[in-house]
Amino acid sequence: MRLLVLDAALSRCLAALVEDGTLRAERVAEGAHGQASALPPLAEAVLEGPLDAVAVGVGPGSFTGLRSAIALAQGIAAARGIPLVAVTTGEALAAEPGGPGPGVPAWAVTENRRGQLFLERFGTEGAARGGPEAVAEADLPRPDALIRLVGDGAPRAAARMAARGWPVALGDARQIGALALAAVARRRLSGGLPPRAVEPAYVEPPATT
Q1: Which of 42, 34, 27 is nearest to 11 (CA)?
Q2: Which of 88, 92, 127, 208 is most buried by a 10 A CB count?
Q3: What pLDDT score does 10 carry?
Q4: Are 89 and 151 in contact (CB under 8 A)?
Q5: What is the reported pTM?
Q6: In what order do the strands lie in the sheet with 2-7?
Q7: Under 8 Å between Cβ of 89 and 107
Q8: CATH architecture designation of domain 2-89+176-189
Q9: Residue 106's Cα: distance from chain center in Å?
């Protein structure tokens, strides 16, 4: 399966071509601003040959980044007549390798640029435990057992939770990777994950960032 992967939820833009779990081409532009102009050239640089589907990150994350990535993904998928698959920020981060080992659930924690954190919780099998939510650092919930924290807000959250003596381990993933996002998209396409609407997961009223 050949997938075009697009994401601009966090502090960079990503476009990649992934075929059967192998990264064929990738372009990345660092920076939390300017996604609307940065992402299309990245996608053009990796587009080659036929595609089976387009996978796009739908957040939580940057308001402008989400809109830009989703609009571009919708245009490419419609022009080629292929499926468009949504993947949340937390789903992609939780699918990244690295952490305390199998059997440990992941919590994705990302910065929301308003001083709070976006939190997505996942079981050991990768299924979401509820939807994304915005929480203050001081209001992070206590886990029932050891969890792996991933995302750009994970170090801040892990420090706060460890100071309280809670069971927490810091995973390696800080940014979304193309292979992890593609892996989640393939699971969704095969029915291993429930369908998700291709629309921004804003969680709270969007900020113009």
Answers
A1: 34
A2: 92
A3: 92
A4: yes
A5: 0.93
A6: 22-30, 12-19, 2-7, 53-57, 84-87
A7: no
A8: 2-Layer Sandwich (3.30)
A9: 13
